[in-house]
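User: Can you predict the 3D structure for this chain?
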Amino acid sequence: MGKLKRVLICDDEPQIRRAVTILLRDAGFQAVPAETARSALDVAGVHLLSAAVIDLILPDGDGVDVCRRLREWSDIPILVLSGIGDESTKIRALEAGADDYVTKPFGPGEFIARLKAVLRRAEPLPQEPVLVIDGLEVDLVSHAVRYKGEEVRLTPIEWELLRALVRNRGRLMTHNALLSQVWGSTYENDKQTLQTHMANLRRKLDPSKRRYIHTDFGVGYRFVA
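Assistant: Here is the predicted structure, written as structure tokens:
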């Protein structure tokens, strides 16, 4: 039996740490608790972690700063867990390096699903980077896309959007991040352009359902793999 994946859980509320520890244990993970920003960074420096769950409001600092500090030397998946649900706070956390955001109170199933999604994103793509999911096939080398065996013709912009989402599969990408990657920094605030191209991409990938690309309204998009 392999070693359990260690997950840092940083929250100053004992009941939240206990609840998340139980959720992680039942899902096959080992929780490594921390109560403060400083202890979270200390734990991350000592333990070999698979992921981190960080609260935003801590006794000695801001969880956003913890995300930023971790990103200076680590690329482990980071899931932000907080009672603050406004869009600007979500965007700050994501732009500081968090991979996803779960708002308190949260459903146990959703929390574990989000954690597993960011862990999947951290897994390296296979040598032949072809992603196949529920009828959709994306070949990153040949720039080919097929849905149920039929070729899907994408414009260059639509392909770049899909490639950015697939490479960050499971991660919530902000509007600004996608605009900067696909169009360049001068387009960072042009959300209307992004929404138009995203609607076209979704229609081509699966006309009947929006099951591959999910929207976090006001924040961004994620490719669900």
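The mean pLDDT is 87. The domain at 130-223 is CATH 1.10.10.10 (Arc Repressor Mutant, subunit A).
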